[in-house]
Specification:
4 strands; globular; about 35% helix
Length: about 170
Amino acid sequence: MAPAILAAVCLSACAVFSPLPDLRTASDRAREVEPRCEGFGEKDAANVLSPQAVDFVEASYSHTPAGPVDRQARLRGARLHVRPMPGLTGEALLRSLECHQAAVTLGKASAVADDPYVLPGSWLDLDVDSERGGFLVLVRSDSFEEARAVLDRARRFAAPRPPAAVPTRP
């Protein structure tokens, strides 16, 4: 193999399998996402950013080797079970949530109360899968502290709220 080709292959492999941590900040990541957000504004995301869109929340775990046979569960964040909405695809839901996270991170939008899709100072990994006629939104972090904060926020976000009191006339 020619030395130039071998060098290119080695550099490509090092970029993909680098043991070095990702040093991009949340703002860096938000700026990378922002160009893909044309047509995915905050007004369009209002329905998916509503607590009523979430059926329930549960913890998200990954399993890592803990010996030759055993595996250890590790908290990664939250699994939000989101109701289906007319015309909403998993891809559109994911893009809406990514763009929401980018807009909030860059200060171009405000987070909703206990927003499970944004964590101040951090960039969260978002993923969406179709599930039983609805969607499963995975909101994850590699940090245990961030994962715990995401899960707590998601549970508060989706918690049932008492109906607003209706004033009565005297």
